[in-house]
Amino acid sequence: MLHRIRHTVPRHCPRRYLSQLSAVIARGAPIDVHEEVQDALATGKPVVALETALTTHGLPPPTNLAVTRDLETVVRSTGCIPATIGIVGGRVKIGLDNKNLERLADVNSPPRSVKVSRRDIAPVLALKGDGGTTICATLIFAALAGIKVFATGGLGGVHRGGENSLDISADLHELTRCSVGLVSAGIKSILDIGRTLEYLETLGVPVVAYSKRNDFPAFFSPKSGFQTPWNTDNPRVAAEILHTQQQLGMENGALFAVPIPEEYAERGRLIQEAVDQAVRESESNGMSKRGKDVTPWLLARVAELTKRDSIEANIALLKNSALIGGQIASQYQNIIS
Ligand code: PSU
Ligand code: MN
């Protein structure tokens, strides 16, 4: 009987996700969905997910709070509802209210937020902690809620030397499990871009340059020197890619890699040099062996070396991702309604 009911609800129907999410909540899972997000999901308004590891571990205060809020505003400007996802007091929040967002952004007062990847979710919830969700963890909750698009800055990847250290971000695997379109500025060259792309190919994740060309961007610069198999700069086509995967019952997501806005590209080349220096330092001071601390350390060091130029560029490309994410999510909603 249950089986039949499930099949009477089309795969793309918002109700299907609501029932998935409701089932999880009915089991007592510690998840709260913000009223506005709940309403959007129920009535078929487009929603864009946003992460909070960026807030807790990616950007320094007070920029972190301002930027997270700005991203929500950019998403709203496209007619979509933002769903900023994080963990507060042992509960997953899909859509964070001001108080909780401020609490996560206040990184200098206890409780200290954990940087939450898949492996950390259950422990941080059971221990009633706070956490900023990485792309990996944000993908999980976005998929659970039926949110089709997630906009952010930099995807994790295979670290330089990853062939020996096996430091490969769980972000990559998660894209095989969550049917969500991830809009990002590619990956930072703190990582091994070539190996990351090879790994994504092995995992079967579509990598689409959101551009007229097939250049895979390297976060601070529009070109990494590596090519993507696909490209489009049309939000409708991007939405069709996601929708086609959905129709086929494919469970993986897709990566839309958006080059940094042109006016920041020149500065990006200078930032690039700081990135290389930070990576060399992390190798000589042993930081590169410190697991989940590696990425935040490198990001902070690059910001220091560039006197925050890297942060300005980071903000610009985050806003650009949020804008394009909103456009793709709107098109997706048009397709299914
Ligand atoms: N890259 C950035 N900025 C970030 C991150 C990555 O340029 O804030 C964050 C994202 O949340 C990403 C996580 O999911 O770091 C990856 O961490 P790790 O490499 O430990 O998997
Ligand atoms: Mn890692």
Automatic annotation (TrEMBL):
Lineage: superkingdom: Eukaryota
Protein name: Indigoidine synthase A-like protein
Residues of the full protein shown: 1 to 337 of 757
